[in-house]
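Look over this record before class:
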Amino acid sequence: MRLTKANIERLALPAGVNDRIVFDAALPGFGLRLRDGGKRTWIVQYRVGTKQRRVTLGTVETLNADEALKRAKIALSTVHLGRDPQLEKAEARAQSAVTLGSIVERYLEERAAKRLKPKTLTEVTRSLREHWKPLHAIPLTKVMRVDIAGQLGRIAKERGPIAANRSRSYLSTLVAWAIAEGLADANPVVGTNKAAEEISRDRVLSDEELCLVWTCAGGGDYGAIVRLLILTGQRREEVAAMRWSELDFDKRVWRIGAERTKNGLLHEVPLPDAALELAAHGRREGRDLVFGSREGPFQGWGNAKSALDARILAKLGEKSEMKPWRLHDIRRTAATRMNELGVLPHVVEAVLNHISGHKAGVAGIYNRAIYAPEKRAALQKWADHIAALGGGR
Protein backbone atom coordinates (compact mmCIF):
# COMPACT_ATOMS: atom_id res chain seq x y z
CA MET A 1 0.00 0.00 0.00
CA ARG A 2 1.29 3.43 -0.93
CA LEU A 3 1.10 5.99 1.86
CA THR A 4 -0.68 8.70 -0.08
CA LYS A 5 -3.04 11.31 1.31
CA ALA A 6 -6.10 9.41 0.05
CA ASN A 7 -4.90 6.08 1.42
CA ILE A 8 -3.96 7.26 4.88
CA GLU A 9 -7.35 8.88 5.37
CA ARG A 10 -8.90 5.41 5.06
CA LEU A 11 -6.52 3.77 7.54
CA ALA A 12 -7.92 2.81 10.94
CA LEU A 13 -6.92 0.62 13.88
CA PRO A 14 -8.57 -2.81 13.93
CA ALA A 15 -10.79 -3.55 16.90
CA GLY A 16 -8.78 -4.37 20.02
CA VAL A 17 -5.49 -3.00 18.59
CA ASN A 18 -3.91 0.02 20.33
CA ASP A 19 -0.82 0.51 18.18
CA ARG A 20 -0.05 -0.31 14.54
CA ILE A 21 2.57 0.65 11.94
CA VAL A 22 1.64 0.60 8.24
CA PHE A 23 4.68 0.62 5.93
CA ASP A 24 4.85 2.13 2.47
CA ALA A 25 4.94 -0.42 -0.34
CA ALA A 26 7.39 1.59 -2.47
CA LEU A 27 9.92 2.77 0.15
CA PRO A 28 10.91 0.10 2.69
CA GLY A 29 11.25 1.49 6.19
CA PHE A 30 8.91 4.44 5.64
CA GLY A 31 5.70 4.07 7.62
CA LEU A 32 2.77 5.60 9.44
CA ARG A 33 2.16 4.77 13.09
CA LEU A 34 -1.43 4.73 14.28
CA ARG A 35 -2.23 4.85 17.99
CA ASP A 36 -5.33 4.50 20.08
CA GLY A 37 -6.75 7.96 20.52
CA GLY A 38 -6.26 9.00 16.91
CA LYS A 39 -2.63 10.15 16.88
CA ARG A 40 -0.85 9.40 13.56
CA THR A 41 2.91 9.79 13.23
CA TRP A 42 5.27 9.38 10.26
CA ILE A 43 8.27 7.17 11.08
CA VAL A 44 11.39 5.73 9.47
CA GLN A 45 12.59 2.30 10.58
CA TYR A 46 16.02 0.89 9.74
CA ARG A 47 18.86 -1.24 11.09
CA VAL A 48 22.31 -0.32 12.30
CA GLY A 49 24.23 -3.55 12.58
CA THR A 50 22.00 -5.92 14.53
CA LYS A 51 19.98 -3.16 16.17
CA GLN A 52 16.70 -1.81 14.86
CA ARG A 53 16.22 1.94 14.99
CA ARG A 54 13.17 4.13 14.56
CA VAL A 55 12.97 7.88 13.96
CA THR A 56 9.86 10.03 14.21
CA LEU A 57 9.43 12.50 11.34
CA GLY A 58 6.28 14.30 12.49
CA THR A 59 2.51 13.96 12.67
CA VAL A 60 0.06 13.94 9.76
CA GLU A 61 -1.27 17.29 11.00
CA THR A 62 2.12 18.98 10.67
CA LEU A 63 3.56 17.00 7.74
CA ASN A 64 1.73 15.96 4.57
CA ALA A 65 2.42 12.64 2.83
CA ASP A 66 4.68 14.06 0.11
CA GLU A 67 6.88 15.99 2.57
CA ALA A 68 7.05 12.98 4.90
CA LEU A 69 8.22 10.82 1.99
CA LYS A 70 10.98 13.30 1.15
CA ARG A 71 12.22 13.37 4.73
CA ALA A 72 12.10 9.58 4.90
CA LYS A 73 14.28 9.31 1.79
CA ILE A 74 16.82 11.73 3.29
CA ALA A 75 16.93 9.80 6.57
CA LEU A 76 17.34 6.43 4.80
CA SER A 77 20.06 7.81 2.52
CA THR A 78 22.09 8.80 5.60
CA VAL A 79 21.78 5.21 6.81
CA HIS A 80 23.32 3.98 3.55
CA LEU A 81 26.19 6.37 4.16
CA GLY A 82 26.87 4.69 7.50
CA ARG A 83 25.21 7.29 9.72
CA ASP A 84 22.51 6.86 12.33
CA PRO A 85 19.61 9.38 12.03
CA GLN A 86 18.21 8.42 15.44
CA LEU A 87 21.57 9.02 17.13
CA GLU A 88 22.04 12.30 15.27
CA LYS A 89 18.57 13.44 16.30
CA ALA A 90 19.29 12.59 19.93
CA GLU A 91 22.59 14.46 19.77
CA ALA A 92 20.91 17.48 18.23
CA ARG A 93 18.27 17.42 20.98
CA ALA A 94 20.97 17.19 23.62
CA GLN A 95 22.90 20.08 22.07
CA SER A 96 19.75 22.22 21.97
CA ALA A 97 19.32 21.64 25.70
CA VAL A 98 22.85 22.93 26.35
CA THR A 99 22.11 26.64 26.16
CA LEU A 100 24.57 29.42 26.82
CA GLY A 101 22.68 30.23 30.02
CA SER A 102 23.01 26.68 31.36
CA ILE A 103 26.73 26.65 30.55
CA VAL A 104 27.20 29.98 32.33
CA GLU A 105 25.86 28.51 35.57
CA ARG A 106 27.86 25.31 35.20
CA TYR A 107 31.05 27.23 34.44
CA LEU A 108 30.58 29.55 37.42
CA GLU A 109 30.01 26.62 39.78
CA GLU A 110 32.53 24.10 38.46
CA ARG A 111 35.35 26.35 37.30
CA ALA A 112 35.19 30.04 38.15
CA ALA A 113 34.22 29.67 41.81
CA LYS A 114 37.23 27.41 42.40
CA ARG A 115 39.81 29.41 40.44
CA LEU A 116 38.96 33.11 40.76
CA LYS A 117 39.44 35.51 43.64
CA PRO A 118 36.19 36.78 45.22
CA LYS A 119 36.30 40.22 43.64
CA THR A 120 37.10 38.87 40.18
CA LEU A 121 34.45 36.17 40.56
CA THR A 122 31.85 38.83 41.35
CA GLU A 123 32.77 40.80 38.22
CA VAL A 124 32.81 37.71 35.98
CA THR A 125 29.50 36.49 37.40
CA ARG A 126 27.80 39.83 36.81
CA SER A 127 29.12 40.03 33.26
CA LEU A 128 28.14 36.49 32.24
CA ARG A 129 24.72 36.62 33.88
CA GLU A 130 23.72 40.17 32.99
CA HIS A 131 25.69 41.36 29.96
CA TRP A 132 25.18 38.12 28.01
CA LYS A 133 21.62 37.40 29.22
CA PRO A 134 20.04 38.17 25.78
CA LEU A 135 21.89 35.12 24.37
CA HIS A 136 21.26 32.74 27.29
CA ALA A 137 18.37 30.88 25.63
CA ILE A 138 20.38 30.02 22.50
CA PRO A 139 22.03 26.57 22.37
CA LEU A 140 25.76 27.03 22.80
CA THR A 141 26.50 25.37 19.46
CA LYS A 142 24.09 27.78 17.75
CA VAL A 143 25.62 30.98 19.12
CA MET A 144 27.23 32.64 16.10
CA ARG A 145 29.90 35.30 15.75
CA VAL A 146 27.28 37.77 14.52
CA ASP A 147 25.32 37.23 17.76
CA ILE A 148 28.43 37.94 19.85
CA ALA A 149 29.40 41.00 17.82
CA GLY A 150 25.90 42.45 18.06
CA GLN A 151 25.72 42.03 21.82
CA LEU A 152 29.21 43.46 22.27
CA GLY A 153 28.02 46.57 20.44
CA ARG A 154 25.07 46.91 22.80
CA ILE A 155 27.28 46.42 25.87
CA ALA A 156 29.71 49.07 24.64
CA LYS A 157 26.86 51.51 24.05
CA GLU A 158 25.15 50.91 27.40
CA ARG A 159 28.11 50.25 29.71
CA GLY A 160 31.18 51.55 27.88
CA PRO A 161 33.92 50.06 25.67
CA ILE A 162 36.07 48.76 28.53
CA ALA A 163 33.10 46.84 29.96
CA ALA A 164 32.52 45.38 26.49
CA ASN A 165 36.15 44.29 26.29
CA ARG A 166 35.96 42.63 29.69
CA SER A 167 32.69 40.87 28.77
CA ARG A 168 34.27 39.66 25.54
CA SER A 169 37.22 38.21 27.44
CA TYR A 170 35.06 36.51 30.09
CA LEU A 171 32.80 34.89 27.46
CA SER A 172 35.77 33.70 25.41
CA THR A 173 37.26 32.06 28.50
CA LEU A 174 33.94 30.37 29.23
CA VAL A 175 33.62 28.96 25.70
CA ALA A 176 37.22 27.74 25.76
CA TRP A 177 36.37 25.83 28.94
CA ALA A 178 33.22 24.45 27.29
CA ILE A 179 35.29 23.23 24.33
CA ALA A 180 37.64 21.42 26.70
CA GLU A 181 34.56 19.85 28.34
CA GLY A 182 33.34 18.59 24.97
CA LEU A 183 30.31 20.92 24.96
CA ALA A 184 31.34 22.91 21.88
CA ASP A 185 33.68 22.62 18.91
CA ALA A 186 34.45 26.26 18.12
CA ASN A 187 34.71 29.60 19.90
CA PRO A 188 32.42 32.20 18.21
CA VAL A 189 34.09 35.00 20.18
CA VAL A 190 37.28 34.55 18.13
CA GLY A 191 37.36 37.09 15.33
CA THR A 192 35.11 39.66 17.00
CA ASN A 193 36.47 43.17 17.44
CA LYS A 194 37.35 44.81 20.72
CA ALA A 195 35.22 47.84 21.50
CA ALA A 196 38.37 49.89 22.14
CA GLU A 197 42.11 49.47 22.36
CA GLU A 198 42.96 49.68 26.03
CA ILE A 199 45.66 51.85 27.50
CA SER A 200 48.93 50.13 28.29
CA ARG A 201 49.24 48.99 31.91
CA ASP A 202 52.74 50.43 32.32
CA ARG A 203 51.72 54.12 32.13
CA VAL A 204 53.54 56.31 34.66
CA LEU A 205 52.56 59.96 34.88
CA SER A 206 55.24 62.60 34.71
CA ASP A 207 55.53 65.20 37.47
CA GLU A 208 53.88 67.76 35.17
CA GLU A 209 50.99 65.37 34.43
CA LEU A 210 50.57 64.51 38.10
CA CYS A 211 50.38 68.19 38.96
CA LEU A 212 47.77 68.67 36.22
CA VAL A 213 45.64 65.85 37.61
CA TRP A 214 45.85 67.27 41.13
CA THR A 215 45.03 70.81 40.00
CA CYS A 216 42.14 69.80 37.74
CA ALA A 217 40.67 67.08 40.00
CA GLY A 218 37.84 69.41 40.97
CA GLY A 219 35.87 69.65 44.18
CA GLY A 220 33.49 67.32 45.94
CA ASP A 221 33.97 63.63 46.55
CA TYR A 222 35.67 62.83 43.26
CA GLY A 223 38.29 65.55 43.66
CA ALA A 224 39.07 64.39 47.20
CA ILE A 225 39.31 60.75 46.07
CA VAL A 226 41.70 61.58 43.22
CA ARG A 227 43.98 63.58 45.51
CA LEU A 228 43.91 60.82 48.14
CA LEU A 229 44.86 58.35 45.43
CA ILE A 230 47.86 60.53 44.63
CA LEU A 231 48.92 61.01 48.26
CA THR A 232 48.43 57.41 49.45
CA GLY A 233 48.92 55.23 46.34
CA GLN A 234 46.03 53.00 47.46
CA ARG A 235 43.48 51.28 45.23
CA ARG A 236 40.53 53.19 43.81
CA GLU A 237 37.90 50.93 45.38
CA GLU A 238 39.57 51.15 48.79
CA VAL A 239 39.57 54.94 48.78
CA ALA A 240 36.04 55.21 47.37
CA ALA A 241 34.73 52.99 50.19
CA MET A 242 36.74 54.66 52.97
CA ARG A 243 34.88 54.61 56.30
CA TRP A 244 35.00 56.97 59.25
CA SER A 245 35.35 53.94 61.50
CA GLU A 246 38.62 53.11 59.72
CA LEU A 247 40.17 56.52 60.37
CA ASP A 248 42.13 57.21 63.56
CA PHE A 249 42.76 60.95 63.49
CA ASP A 250 44.69 60.89 66.77
CA LYS A 251 47.22 58.37 65.49
CA ARG A 252 46.92 59.68 61.91
CA VAL A 253 46.28 56.20 60.50
CA TRP A 254 43.76 54.73 58.07
CA ARG A 255 43.15 51.03 58.87
CA ILE A 256 41.62 49.12 55.96
CA GLY A 257 40.03 45.88 57.17
CA ALA A 258 41.08 42.53 55.76
CA GLU A 259 37.64 42.10 54.20
CA ARG A 260 38.27 45.16 52.01
CA THR A 261 41.83 44.54 50.82
CA LYS A 262 42.73 42.61 47.68
CA ASN A 263 45.08 40.23 49.52
CA GLY A 264 42.76 39.74 52.51
CA LEU A 265 45.17 41.30 55.04
CA LEU A 266 44.64 44.25 57.36
CA HIS A 267 46.41 47.28 55.91
CA GLU A 268 47.45 50.36 57.86
CA VAL A 269 48.10 53.55 55.88
CA PRO A 270 49.87 56.38 57.75
CA LEU A 271 48.29 59.65 56.62
CA PRO A 272 50.26 62.89 56.14
CA ASP A 273 48.50 66.16 56.99
CA ALA A 274 47.28 66.79 53.44
CA ALA A 275 45.63 63.35 53.31
CA LEU A 276 44.01 63.84 56.75
CA GLU A 277 42.48 67.13 55.59
CA LEU A 278 41.04 65.45 52.48
CA ALA A 279 39.64 62.53 54.45
CA ALA A 280 37.88 64.89 56.86
CA HIS A 281 36.34 67.02 54.12
CA GLY A 282 32.69 66.54 55.13
CA ARG A 283 31.08 64.09 57.54
CA ARG A 284 27.42 63.13 57.13
CA GLU A 285 25.50 62.15 60.24
CA GLY A 286 24.50 58.49 60.38
CA ARG A 287 26.77 57.53 57.47
CA ASP A 288 30.01 55.58 58.01
CA LEU A 289 31.14 55.90 54.39
CA VAL A 290 33.22 59.01 53.80
CA PHE A 291 32.39 59.37 50.10
CA GLY A 292 29.21 58.93 48.10
CA SER A 293 25.66 60.03 48.75
CA ARG A 294 23.61 56.82 48.56
CA GLU A 295 23.82 53.53 50.43
CA GLY A 296 27.07 52.42 48.81
CA PRO A 297 30.44 54.09 48.19
CA PHE A 298 31.16 56.70 45.52
CA GLN A 299 29.87 55.87 42.03
CA GLY A 300 29.89 57.64 38.68
CA TRP A 301 33.52 57.06 37.77
CA GLY A 302 33.07 57.33 34.01
CA ASN A 303 31.40 60.75 33.91
CA ALA A 304 33.70 62.15 36.58
CA LYS A 305 36.83 60.97 34.74
CA SER A 306 35.56 62.43 31.45
CA ALA A 307 34.96 65.77 33.16
CA LEU A 308 38.46 65.67 34.66
CA ASP A 309 40.00 64.97 31.24
CA ALA A 310 38.02 67.87 29.79
CA ARG A 311 39.35 70.24 32.49
CA ILE A 312 42.91 69.07 31.82
CA LEU A 313 42.46 69.65 28.07
CA ALA A 314 41.03 73.11 28.70
CA LYS A 315 43.97 74.01 30.93
CA LEU A 316 46.53 72.78 28.41
CA GLY A 317 44.83 74.63 25.58
CA GLU A 318 45.56 73.89 21.94
CA LYS A 319 49.33 73.69 22.42
CA SER A 320 49.45 70.11 23.65
CA GLU A 321 47.37 67.33 25.13
CA MET A 322 47.83 64.70 27.84
CA LYS A 323 48.29 61.12 26.68
CA PRO A 324 45.44 58.72 27.59
CA TRP A 325 45.60 57.63 31.22
CA ARG A 326 43.43 56.04 33.90
CA LEU A 327 43.14 56.30 37.67
CA HIS A 328 45.10 53.11 38.33
CA ASP A 329 48.13 54.80 36.70
CA ILE A 330 48.29 57.04 39.78
CA ARG A 331 49.08 54.03 42.00
CA ARG A 332 51.84 52.90 39.65
CA THR A 333 53.16 56.47 39.48
CA ALA A 334 53.27 56.79 43.27
CA ALA A 335 55.24 53.54 43.55
CA THR A 336 57.68 54.53 40.82
CA ARG A 337 58.26 58.03 42.15
CA MET A 338 58.75 56.85 45.76
CA ASN A 339 61.45 54.49 44.51
CA GLU A 340 63.07 57.41 42.67
CA LEU A 341 62.92 59.46 45.89
CA GLY A 342 65.00 56.81 47.63
CA VAL A 343 62.29 54.79 49.38
CA LEU A 344 63.43 51.17 49.63
CA PRO A 345 61.48 48.65 47.48
CA HIS A 346 60.19 46.61 50.40
CA VAL A 347 58.84 49.76 52.04
CA VAL A 348 57.05 50.73 48.83
CA GLU A 349 55.53 47.24 48.77
CA ALA A 350 54.39 47.73 52.35
CA VAL A 351 52.80 51.08 51.48
CA LEU A 352 50.93 49.50 48.53
CA ASN A 353 50.02 46.38 50.56
CA HIS A 354 51.66 44.10 48.02
CA ILE A 355 52.40 40.49 49.01
CA SER A 356 55.61 39.71 47.16
CA GLY A 357 59.34 39.79 47.73
CA HIS A 358 60.13 40.95 51.27
CA LYS A 359 56.48 40.90 52.36
CA ALA A 360 55.67 37.38 51.23
CA GLY A 361 54.59 34.70 53.65
CA VAL A 362 54.84 34.81 57.44
CA ALA A 363 57.57 37.45 57.29
CA GLY A 364 55.11 39.92 55.81
CA ILE A 365 52.72 39.47 58.72
CA TYR A 366 55.35 40.02 61.41
CA ASN A 367 57.08 42.87 59.56
CA ARG A 368 53.88 44.95 59.26
CA ALA A 369 54.51 46.71 62.58
CA ILE A 370 58.22 47.05 61.89
CA TYR A 371 57.55 48.85 58.64
CA ALA A 372 55.05 51.31 60.16
CA PRO A 373 57.63 54.11 60.74
CA GLU A 374 59.19 53.52 57.32
CA LYS A 375 55.75 53.67 55.65
CA ARG A 376 54.96 56.95 57.41
CA ALA A 377 58.30 58.45 56.40
CA ALA A 378 57.81 57.26 52.79
CA LEU A 379 54.33 58.75 52.46
CA GLN A 380 55.46 62.01 54.09
CA LYS A 381 58.35 62.26 51.66
CA TRP A 382 55.92 61.60 48.81
CA ALA A 383 53.48 64.23 50.12
CA ASP A 384 56.34 66.77 50.35
CA HIS A 385 57.22 65.98 46.74
CA ILE A 386 53.62 66.60 45.66
CA ALA A 387 53.58 69.87 47.56
CA ALA A 388 56.83 70.92 45.87
CA LEU A 389 55.18 70.32 42.48
CA GLY A 390 52.36 72.66 43.42
CA GLY A 391 49.94 69.91 44.40
CA GLY A 392 50.14 70.87 48.04
CA ARG A 393 48.19 74.01 47.24
